[in-house]
Amino acid sequence: MEKTWNNKAWFLVLPVLLLVAFSAVIPLMTVVNYSVQDTFGNNEFFWAGTEWFRDVLASDRFWESMARNLLFSAIVLVVEIPLGILIALNMPKRGIGVPVCLVFMSLPLLIPWNVVGTIWQLFARTDVGLFGSVMTSLGFDYNYGRDTLDAWFTIVIMDVWHWTSLVVLLCYAGLMSIPDAYYQAAKIDGASRWSVFRFIQLPKLNRVLQIAILLRFMDSFMIYTEPFVVTGGGPGSVTTFLSIDLVKIAVGQFDLGPASAMSIIYFLIVLLVSWVFYTVTTQPDEDRT
User: What is the pLDDT of residues 48-80, one digit of tens each?
Assistant: First the structure.
């Protein structure tokens, strides 16, 4: 008997496909089109080939911005991952404290990025901001709009405040999924708290930490709104990341060709690094199986 296929289900998927095409594929193709062409106005375009890509890759400005991006991502990962694990380990496992802690941990994640930048722009000011006033009262000559280290310190602290909660929630969910039998066996063997963390909790958090690191890398490497609102890429260009530099080229200078080429290179870097990270971190598990 010949099997019949019901294709009516495709009508349910069609709206999603159209939405993805409208919001992702069509803009991406537009960027690709601009990256291989040049224009002198009047909506007239001329074939440029890979010229813009060569110019971007040969630009010191591009590599300096990328170096700042990589440094920022490395700093926030080194701070947020251990801090998130530490907070998750000390959160209550039962009782009324559980929902209270979860709500407080979720609050920073609910604040829009531009609002976070505005909050810290005011919060870090030395005249009206609490953070800036405290730094000044402690004897520091703090000014995030003038000093390079102060600008970086402010942006890092802002990102830690905003996104450590994501690591906490992921790690807490991983810890809660560990069966009590492991803890009971460790208690019988007289294992210390460090031993429990090293041989039980940390291995069980392996997959969760992979997700946390990957998400935080992608988000920190593509950060734009918060540092742009707080410092505008300054003082000078010390906090001008790739995303900020890209907007300056595309919107400020209206160089659509170089901006499109840079955005594609930017996208490929994030995709490549994420793929390499995923491949490297999952390879040991595949070898064991």
Answer: 888 999 999 999 999 999 999 999 999 999 999
Strand partners, 147: none
d(CA 251, CA 245): 10
Write down the pTM of the prediction.
0.87
Between CA 260 and CA 35 the distance in angstroms is 5
Type of residue at 205: L
Side chain identity at residue 198, one-letter code: R
